[in-house]
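Ligand-bound model needed. fructose -6-phosphate.
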Amino acid sequence: MCGIVGILSKNNDDVVSDIINGLEKLEYRGYDSAGVAVVGDGELKRVRTVGKLNNLADKLKVNPVKGGVGIGHTRWATHGKATEENAHPMVTKDVALVHNGIIENYKELKADLLQKGYGFTSQTDSEVAAVYLQMELDSGLSPREAFREMIKAVRGTYAFLAIFKTCPDMIFCARNKSPVAVGFGDNMCVGSDASSISANCSEIVYLDDGDYAEITKDGATFFDSNLNVVEKSRVAVTDDLVNSGKGEYSHYMIKEIMEQPSAIRKTLLGNDVPRDFFKGISRILILACGTSYHAGLVGKYWFEKYLRLPTHVEIASEYRYRSPVIEDNTLALVITQSGETIDTLEAMEYVRRNNVTCKLAAITNVLNSAISRSADFVFHTEAGVEIGVASTKAFTAQLTVLAKLAFSKNPELLNQLQNLPQVCENSLLLKEDIDKIAFKIKDCVNAIYLGRDNLYPIALEGALKLKEISYIHAEGFAAGEMKHGPIALIDDVVPVICLCPSGNMFDKMFSNIQVAQARGKNVIVFTDTTGAESFDGSVEKIVLPSINEELYPILYSIPLQLLAYMVTVLKGEDVDKPRNLAKSVTVE
Ligand code: F6R
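Prediction:
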């Protein structure tokens, strides 16, 4: 969380607008406040604002700053409220610093610095890093020595960028568990991801945990945690690394929803499962968070049914704190769009540390992410860069990989998967029907989503999509579980959104819907042509194309995404940047 960008001009040109453009690509990482600092005319200059980046751009029009080297930050607040004082860059007399991560020992460092007479102006943990650098400079160390001392002193997670008043031709950066990419091109640049620096560079080096780098106009020198110089391979900046903008769409989310047929098609093309992938595996452990966790829940239905492997799905943030039993020969499969989610990364590392017989595989959407690099085996969802904070195309691409894995011994189902892109394409044509439902439910306070079998996780996911962007309180339930408590929530107003296509579970689900209808007046059913025949005009119906019932989770996710999107647009909320959220969750 938090996005960082730094640019060093090779010709001393002003870098501020390039930094702002880079930060714009990183707003998905947080948008509580933003700021920029430069060294220009021998002075450190800084501008910061609360709120989204456009506030900073407006402020810069009134108070322009210029410099040939600079750093910028877009914040997701952890320590200290989203105020201007807490906005980065943190600046002292001679240093400006931006930070993404959490400094766990900031209290002790701060106490020590206060005792030495240094003052603080923010409530952030990050400011201690800047003040620490200042202390080391005051003691006579060079910027390079000071930076090395600072990263030795801090404990926690970080991506740091620092510039020094006395050293305007350099940027220092370091990484521990928060991503840093150094870019080579017309200018030297550094950012949280490739998109943020791609306008200025053609090649990228990704820092590993413990690395730090010194960036000069001539290039960059990389050091490992023992301060040995290390050679790092450069990767070309290709389209799949870059956020190509919203195109014809008004929001990233709707663009990404619409991209799903192509994301699924591309994901199907790759990700062949090696013949001996499950050899020696006696169970599967899925670790993930949020939407990716919901994908894992679907995986459990498929893996147990088709591979006959016991499968456990765990919320990654809970997993390693409860002394789990990790059985031998487990396939630990982590699912993550960003590949950076710290809870998921730590859960995977926990398995690695505690049972060497486990195989660690990851499904990620970001190559070169921390989890991609750490897993023994990686399946890459080919969804392309996902910017909307609410995950859509990455989710259905994750399900596509899970389906390929689960059906790897079932040629008939593998064949059925090939129909998915076209059927999903057809489901997008339902947008206008779904818009009408959105109009009807936009003012509700609560919403209930019901599903059974492999559509139960999709009920959970549908509810998450709605609540996270529209702020309508929504809960998903296994329809059969309603009678054990949640049915008390049904009244004439609350929308009850039911996933009820034809197939094995239809009769049971149909009965559950009758029970809901007997108690409420606002039942909405997502079904297919055969299923629709059983419903009369007393329910709202959305009729989806037909497909093999094993593939329902992928298909039925799409109309629920469209519903959440449209409700949010109608409510006038910020679809792509919902309050309090960020896309890449690098704090625990
Ligand atoms: C919700 C959403 C989140 C993420 C979760 C895990 O729409 O996107 O719930 O799924 O934060 O993120 P990743 O998949 O990057 O590990």
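Residues 3-241 form a domain with the Glutamine Phosphoribosylpyrophosphate, subunit 1, domain 1 fold (CATH 3.60.20.10).
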